[in-house]
Amino acid sequence: MTEQQPTPPNTSFQIRLPLLFAVTLAIGMFIGQKLPHYDRDITLFSRDASAGANGTVDEVLRYVEAQYVDTVDMAALKTQTLDFLLHELDPHSVYITPEEASAVEDDLKGEFVGIGVEFITVDDTIQVVTPLVGGPSETAGLLAGDKVIAINDAVVAGVKIDNGKVFNKLRGAKGTPVQLAILRGREKDVRNFTIVRDVIPVKSVDVAYMLDATTGYIKVNRFSAKTQQEFMEKLRTLTEEGKMQNLVLDLRGNPGGYIDAATELLSQLFANEKLLVYTKDREGERYEYKSSGRAQFNVQNIAVLIDEGSASASEIVAGAIQDWDRGWIIGRRSFGKGLVQNQYPLSDGGELRLTTARYYTPSGRSIQRAYKHNADYEREAEHRLSDGELSGLANIKLADSTKYYTGQGRVVYGGGGIIPDIFVPLDTAHTSTYFLALRGYLPQFVARWMESHDRSVFPADL
Fold this sequence. Notes:
Elements: H1 11-34, H2 53-67, H3 74-87, E1 94-96, H4 98-109, E2 111-114, E3 117-122, E4 125-131, H5 136-140, E5 147-151, E6 154-155, H6 163-170, E7 177-183, E8 191-196, E9 198-201, E10 205-210, E11 215-220, H7 227-240, E12 246-250, H8 259-267, E13 275-280, E14 286-290, E15 302-306, H9 313-323, E16 328-331, E17 339-345, E18 351-360, H10 374-378, H11 380-386, E19 404-405, E20 411-412, E21 422-423, H12 433-439, H13 442-451
């Protein structure tokens, strides 16, 4: 191609140039508005193309959102992508959506802000089971059996509302009001209540009482940020008022929680400094948790109740008690979770719960079950029932035959939960097809029955 010689300036062209530029810019903006758009804030991984596979996954999601032939729920697709990715790691590394994060945090924090009421759905209508003692709903005058017709002028009866949406409507900032339209009993007129949201405690210690003259019983349902405080209050009451010497600690069905809460509780059960549990990360770095050696109460004999629903922090407690021969473990083999997770906040408001270490009991046991096949891992309860393990100690299959020794030389095993010292079989009535089929209908049946009968014949505490 022949190079052109420069031409002298064109005065008319210079005059028209700004106008031409303005027209071009306007046309570009118009075309840009007609092109498909996508939200650039949706980011799963680095936007840097040099980030390799990470950047590729992000790119694919962006192309799907911008160009895919059908409308796509990108939030759901993002969640599914993350779930699949984490599923390849271990069963306890999970993505927590922004909607779920608040509920998870409240559960472990030991409190939430709301109106303080338990409810069920009966015939597509929200019905109060009980207002929590001392909570805003009780103060406002709500009663068990009240039907919620509307929340803040939005009708919630007969519209197939799910529990998640109910929680979102009832929870909120402390001090803010909630308007409820209530239908009570056989009354035809709706009652209106204004309830001011407040902090509602989520108790991790269900009950505590004396079994006999010297033995106390405490049921812990989870290990939250407030478990130690609650446990100490109950322990003090039983020891000082009930003259408790021995303790039955019920951890059946306790799914775990904070490792610190478990070790703080254990510190009250060991008079001397003892190794309670230790963790190891992928670099092999070891971190030890020890009892403080400052137990405030003289608890003598201890029995810990566990079952197939006792996991994580519950197993840390049971493992320490067993390995140091501090007490007896009674029940059935525990769940078998020996992994430690850290929780990381994400830019979308969700959270990543990622396994960062394994924990070991004082004797060196890892009680984590194998999880190569996650589907089998999640159906462990079914396998134990079909294998007969829940009805007989001899049916327990050891995943790891390595022998570990307690402080007094007793042999214990790892590789799949804490095996109890004293086995208690499952009540098979609870596993019958008839019982399982009816159990889900019982709360609704009771609610309907109470509504159709005169409340004046019921005891005052019902």
